[in-house]
Amino acid sequence: MNAPHRAFDAARVILLSIGHGIHDMYPAFPAPLLPLLQAKLGLSNTLAGSLATFLRSSSLAQPFIGYLADRVGVRAAFNLLALVPLATIPFALLMRDPPRHAPVDSH
Prior knowledge:
Structural class: mainly alpha
Largest sheet: none
Radius of gyration: 21 Å
């Protein structure tokens, strides 16, 4: 069965390309701001580097997600990947609750 032929929609392709480009560039924006973030939030070099690594990690997953979408279809891959955040909820619930009070000075 042949799919119906649709005309090339240049405006839609350009709009999607711009949106995708902005989405892919976003993780690079905090890198020049890391010294300011370190000073403002009191982050160590290790935490600042971890933040930069975490933000860029989505780029590493994109080829695998594209391969999955090509193999099982975009809709099935999207549905499968939508379950990933749900799988992390139990681990987030197991994390200890941080203290909500300031330490008391006994002097």
